[in-house]
Design goal:
Blueprint lengths: L4 E3 L4 H8 L4 E4 L5 H7 L6 E4 L7 E3 L5 E4 L4 H6 L1 H6 L1 H8 L4 H6 L2 H5 L52 H7 L3 E6 L2 E6 L22 E7 L8 E6 L10 E10 L2 E10 L6 E2 L1 H7 L6 H11 L11 H18 L4
Parallel strand pairs: 1-3, 2-3
Antiparallel strand pairs: 4-5, 5-8, 6-7, 6-8, 9-10, 10-11, 11-12
Helix pairs in contact: 5-8, 9-10, 10-11
This protein binds flavin-adenine dinucleotide (FAD).
């Protein structure tokens, strides 16, 4: 590991000033960043510890939650307001990693964790455009069972690994940022970039900006919601596909719906086409199949992951049938 120094600023403004300096990297729980430093993927000269920033979880006026960037994943999953109003978020977090890792991992770190693509994580022997722009992508013709079927590019088919962020995407979360130019709020839907021809640029954050909080608006769909993750092992494994869904029903019709997928794209994938197809219609298997066909019409699986198309369709249908079934 390359030697580095350590700073622990007390305010987000101090942290932002440090984050803008060359070689400086923000440190949350370190569960991803320190791994990447050990592997030689990341080489920061200074770690800027931001775990002293807010970790509060506050109910906002008019409903909704504001979650401090330094809140630990386990604290968010166990919080009574999260469990009561956003069970899909609690379930998504608990579907990820292990209890020990969730105790260390922060909300901001989870949002910005890097891909688990084996080629990205192997600087000694693999080509990766995300790690080294212009070097090529060994995943395209390599072992791509875990890779993207939507949103990838000829330069990168890595997936975003987070479970938590899939639920946040379905819940219309907003990201609070602070930087030298002040503060701003970005919808999560606009926070991640697709790889295109610059896969090393993963978010719309500016240099020196940091995440200070995540806001989740009040939602009637939060309560009738679910998160389901399909993986190769029953625990301690990343998603092959995952589904976060929330619905509100009126007289047997889907009044409104939120649907997001994980494990299948370079960012948590909001299924807007499937939502539009299902909104206002019956909750039948036929309607769900047609909605998923519309969403996945642009899917471009690689040689090793074509199974994800059918797996995602079936997982989504199973979750929606569970949520829309008779609850009397
Ligand atoms: C064995 C293992 C299994 C795992 N399994 C899963 C899984 O199944 N599902 C899942 O979702 N996750 C899984 N994870 C990933 C885990 O959730 C992440 O490592 C964790 O969420 C990262 O949070 P952290 O606070 O430790 O981030 P760090 O490692 O500290 O940082 C990650 C990134 O976030 C940046 N950062 C941190 N704080 C801020 C801030 N305030 N503003 C801007 N940038 C910031 C850092 O600079 C760094 O780039 C697993 C991890 C391990 C090691």
């Amino acid at each position: 590991m390359t030697p580095f120094s350590y700073r622990r600023p007390a305010s987000s403004m101090d942290a932002s000033a440090l984050a803008a300096l060359k070689g400086h990297k923000l440190l949350g729980g370190g569960t991803n960043l320190v791994d990447l430093m050990r592997k030689g993927v990341e080489h920061p000269t200074t770690l800027v510890d931001v775990t002293a920033l807010s970790s509060e979880i506050i109910e906002m006026e008019g409903g909704g939650l504001l979650i401090g960037a330094a809140a630990r994943n386990s604290a968010v999953a166990a919080h009574p307001l999260v469990r009561a109003h956003y069970p899909m978020l609690s379930r998504a977090i608990l579907a990820g990693a292990s209890a020990q890792i969730r105790n260390m991992a922060t909300v901001a770190g989870n949002l910005l964790q890097r891909t688990r693509c084996a080629y990205f994580n192997d600087p000694a022997a693999s080509r990766c455009n995300k790690r080294q722009p212009g070097s090529g992508c060994d995943a395209l013709e390599g072992f791509n069972r875990y890779h993207a079927i939507l949103g990838g590019s000829p330069g990168c088919i890595a997936t975003h690994p987070s479970d938590m962020c899939v639920a946040l995407m379905a819940l219309d979360a907003q990201i609070h940022l602070a930087g030298s130019a002040g503060t701003r709020i970005v919808p999560l839907a606009d926070f991640y970039r697709l790889p295109g021809d610059s896969p090393h640029l993963e978010t719309t954050m500016e240099i020196g900006e940091l995440i200070t909080a995540v806001e989740i608006p009040a939602s009637a769909m939060g309560q009738r919601s679910a998160y389901r993750k399909v993986r190769d092992r029953a625990s301690y494994a990343f998603a092959l596909v995952s589904v976060a869904a929330g619905v509100s029903m009126q007289d047997g019709t889907i009044e409104d719906i939120r649907l997001a997928f994980g494990g299948i794209a370079p960012r948590p994938w909001r299924a807007l086409q499937a939502e539009a197809a299902l909104r206002g219609g019956p909750a039948t298997p036929e309607a769900m199949a047609a909605a998923m066909d519309a969403e996945l019409a642009v899917a471009r699986p690689a040689a090793g992951n074509a199974f994800k198309v059918e797996l995602l369709k079936r997982t989504t249908a199973a979750v929606l049938l569970e949520l829309t079934g008779d609850r009397s």
